[in-house]
């Protein structure tokens, strides 16, 4: 059995090298309590109720922009692997612009859960190297049998992809996959229509799609956007664009991700340095700092730039210390004035 240790860094200026030392499992830090997840059996350190109540009453002092930038690093100490992703996301059409016909088609489809375009290897059952456009349709009420569901889903998906000429891609229908509900991921029972398109490497997709959809102020602001572009230098990096409707908005997410295997044991044992792990995957990634976007330079936006580190390790280990500032509790916006890590589980 393994334990998930989660460190979240709020980035207000730059990220420094962050070593994290492990020790035998001890009691949670002040302001947290330990609980056992009934599904996984993992121990978690979570905020006590008092802290949560205080957060809700004193967080109005800072600003929150629609645009967000996230980096997530998942380290599996046993398998010696890492998964790193850089995401730029916003529900604001001005931040990440999609074609009007596509936007209209998405809003007109009440059953649409999400549209995902990705060049991930084997992005769907029966697809090897071709990029996929995945149209996830809520299948409740579309029939009980596979053939009936597939017959009802196809015209809904075609209207979104074919009729809107999805971001200029010449898509070809491939198949429809029936999926069960995944409550842990917030997914209802789905029928996913799979379309394939021409193969493009990740740098080309970032150039053709990401850079054209992103607002100029975001592109010029650098920050995690620069890191995302650095990731494309690795031939195994993968691109995705996710469009998820929510009432009168569409959450738009551009992500570049990378999986690295065979990590040196010394990099994932006593001390873990997130920036070193990025450098292993991106040879031209240099320096000991990552800066947030200048987009947030005017105002106080403490939770718009997040560096999330998840460490999968033995159950009797915990993060003992970090280099770069620790936020033990979050009681008010005053606790978010400086960059720092907080421990969530």
Describe this structure in words.
This protein has about 350 residues and is an alpha+beta fold. The protein has two domains: about 5-90 and about 255-345, no CATH class; about 100-195, no CATH class. Helices cover about 20% and strands about 35% of the residues. The protein contains seven helices and 17 strands. The protein has an eleven-stranded mixed sheet with strand order 10-11-9-8-12-13-7-6-15-1-17, covered by helices on one side. A hairpin with a 4-residue loop joins β6 (about 70-75) and β7. The longest helix is centred in the middle third of the chain and has 16 residues, at about 145-160. The radius of gyration is 21 Å and the shape is globular. The chain starts with a strand and ends with a strand. The model is unreliable at about 10-25 and about 45-60 (pLDDT under 50).
Jot down its keywords.
345 residues, alpha+beta, eleven-stranded mixed sheet, two-stranded antiparallel sheet, 17 strands, 19% helix, 33% strand
Give the CA-CA distance, first to last residue.
16 Å
**Main β sheet profile:** 11 strands, mixed
Share in helix: 10-25%
Instruction: Write down the domain tally.
Output: 2
**pLDDT averaged over residues:** 79
SSE class: alpha+beta
Tell me briefly what this model is.
The protein folds into two domains: 3-91 and 254-343, no CATH class; 100-196, no CATH class.
Chart the SSEs and their pairings.
Elements: E1 3-10, E2 14-15, E3 20-24, E4 32-36, E5 43-47, H1 49-58, E6 68-76, E7 81-90, H2 100-107, E8 112-118, E9 132-138, H3 146-161, E10 172-179, E11 190-196, H4 202-213, H5 216-220, H6 224-231, E12 238-246, E13 249-260, H7 274-281, E14 290-291, E15 305-313, E16 317-322, E17 340-343
Parallel strand pairs: 6-15
Antiparallel strand pairs: 1-15, 1-17, 2-14, 3-16, 4-5, 6-7, 7-13, 8-9, 8-12, 9-11, 10-11, 12-13
């Amino acid at each position: 059995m393994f334990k998930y240790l989660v460190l979240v860094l709020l980035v207000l200026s730059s990220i420094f090298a962050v070593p994290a030392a492990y020790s035998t499992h001890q009691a949670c830090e002040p302001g947290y309590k330990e609980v056992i997840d009934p599904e996984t059996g993992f121990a978690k350190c979570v905020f006590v109720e008092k802290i949560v109540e205080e957060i809700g009453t004193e967080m109005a002092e800072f600003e929150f922009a629609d645009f967000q930038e996230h980096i997530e690093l998942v380290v599996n100490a046993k398998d010696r692997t890492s998964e790193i992703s850089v995401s730029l996301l916003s529900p604001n059409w001005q931040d990440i612009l999609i074609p009007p016909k596509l936007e209209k088609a998405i809003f007109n489809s009440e059953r649409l859960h999400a549209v995902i375009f990705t060049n991930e290897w084997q992005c769907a059952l029966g697809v090897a190297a071709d990029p996929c456009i995945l149209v996830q349709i809520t299948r409740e009420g579309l029939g009980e049998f596979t053939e009936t569901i597939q017959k009802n889903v196809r015209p809904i998906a075609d209207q979104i992809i074919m009729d809107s000429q999805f971001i200029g891609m010449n898509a070809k229908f491939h198949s429809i996959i029936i999926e069960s509900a995944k409550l842990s991921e917030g997914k209802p029972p789905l029928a996913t229509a799979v379309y394939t398109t021409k193969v493009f490497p990740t740098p080309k997709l970032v150039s053709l799609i990401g850079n054209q959809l992103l607002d100029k102020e975001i592109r010029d602001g650098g920050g995690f956007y620069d890191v995302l572009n650095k990731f494309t230098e690795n031939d195994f990096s993968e691109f995705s664009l996710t469009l998820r409707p929510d009432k009168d908005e569409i959450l738009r997410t551009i992500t570049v991700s990378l999986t690295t295997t065979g990590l040196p044991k010394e990099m994932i044992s006593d001390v873990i340095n997130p920036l070193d792990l990025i450098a292993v995957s991106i040879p031209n990634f240099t320096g000991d700092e990552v800066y947030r976007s200048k987009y947030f330079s005017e105002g106080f936006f403490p939770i718009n730039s997040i560096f999330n580190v998840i460490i999968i390790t033995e159950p009797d280990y915990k993060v003992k210390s970090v280099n770069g500032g620790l936020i033990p509790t979050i009681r008010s916006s005053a606790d978010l004035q400086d960059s720092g890590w907080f421990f969530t589980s």
